[in-house]
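Reviewer 2 asked us to include a model.

Predict the structure of this chain.
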Amino acid sequence: MVLMASQLIQAKEHFYSHIGVGYVVWKPMSLDDYQSEPLRNIENASTLPLLSATLKILNNHALRVGYFNWNQAGTDKHPSSKVNLHYLALDAMSLVIAESPASPYVSYGLSTVLHRKDSGNLIAAGPGYQMGAGLYLNLHRRIAFTAEYRFLYLMLHDQIGQTNNYSGPILSTSLHVCF
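Predicted model (structure tokens):
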């Protein structure tokens, strides 16, 4: 009887380590002609899928590594300013309600942007700092979904393309396989 009661009292776990793939819109404010349209990408910009791996540390805390590639072809104003940046981030994630299949969370961490120089080598263009908030949905024991808004502060050492200020919001949605 006591054993059955203790099993009923235990909260079901809904947050797991996971790997995921998703869609991202990065809007550096210095390049954004559409600030009133948060889902509209920067002119001539495209992003390869977001890849992420999250390792659960405690009940509601995790470490996350994320990567995506951001490209901007020349624009009407600057036809020769082509940009190819590789975004790499290490975040801490903290869920507000880990026992629930749907939980808001906060994320905060460091990032760097890599840029391919004319020599062909990837170099670190500058460090970044980010903070965000999102929603984690555990759809099934093996499948989860996240939607997140984060702000990235990123001032590059040198100008790449039209600017050295790539600070701005990052909006993402991801589907994850949990383990």
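The radius of gyration is 19 Å. The CA atoms of residues 128 and 154 lie 4 Å apart. We have added this to the supplementary material.
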